[in-house]
Every structure is written in structure tokens, then in C-alpha cells.
Request: fold
Amino acid sequence: MTVGVGGFLLKGGINGPGGTALYGIGANNVVRYTTVDADGEVYHIDEHGVTRLDLDMKEVDEVPAFKAKDLFFSMRLSGPSYGVTTEFLYKVYERPGTYGY
Ligand SMILES: Cc1cc2nc3c(=O)[nH]c(=O)nc-3n(C[C@H](O)[C@H](O)[C@H](O)COP(=O)(O)OP(=O)(O)OC[C@H]3O[C@@H](n4cnc5c(N)ncnc54)[C@H](O)[C@@H]3O)c2cc1C
Reply:
């Protein structure tokens, strides 16, 4: 693959034959984003909620839950719309075969 992981997981994620059919696109396999918003605040965004981090990257407070799920799903294919994602936690799988182009 010749593309960056940022765009692959935020705007794409089609794998070689077998991969996408079995596991979905890359964007659907992200478990948690660490994202910096336009104000410089850093957040963990996952299916359970949105949590703000301090300068030591420790979780300090939760953003109200009603926003959380919406934002997690909205992150998929959003690219840079909500901020710059600096870390991705995502599921990995054993590949069914080798493929390159
Ligand atoms: C030769 C080639 C092969 C390809 N192969 C595949 C493939 O096998 N599977 C597939 O799914 N797609 C493939 N693509 C398409 C590719 O997934 C998209 O072009 C992808 O968006 C590229 O991501 P990038 O980070 O390299 O590019 P960029 O152009 O840097 O990023 C794409 C978008 O995501 C945003 N972005 C990138 N990183 C971040 C970040 N950390 N935080 C917030 N926003 C960010 C950028 O601002 C931009 O809007 C291929 C493209 C090419 C040219």
C-alpha cells in the first residue's frame, strides 16, 4: 500500500481481495481515535464516549454522552472535518493471502 494510515482510516480503507469482504473497510475497524480539535484540545473518541485529555495525555473529563456515539460514528470517512487525529487504535486480522498492486 502506498497511502498514509491517516487517510486510509479516515477517508478510505479498502483492502485487497478478501480483506474488505471479510472485515469491512479500515474506517469501520477503528476502536478509538485520539484527535486534536481546532482549539488545541485533545480527545479520546470511542463508542463509549468522548474524553478530554490533559497535556500529559491523561483522561480528565468526559464530554456529555449524547454527543459521544454520534461523534464516533461521524469520524468514519470524515477526514480532517473534526480535527487532526494523532493516534488510531484499531483491530487487526491475519491476512487471508498476499496481494499487491
Ligand atoms: C497509489 C494509490 C493506492 C491506493 N490504494 C488504496 C488502497 O489499497 N485502499 C484504499 O482504501 N485506498 C487506497 N487509495 C486511496 C487512499 O485511501 C486515499 O487516497 C487516502 O485517503 C489517502 O490517505 P493519505 O493519508 O495517504 O492521503 P492524504 O491526501 O494526506 O489524506 C486524505 C485526507 O485525509 C485527511 N487526513 C489524513 N491524515 C489525517 C489525520 N491524521 N487526521 C485528520 N485528517 C487526516 C487529509 O486532510 C485528506 O483530507 C490509494 C491511493 C493511491 C494514490
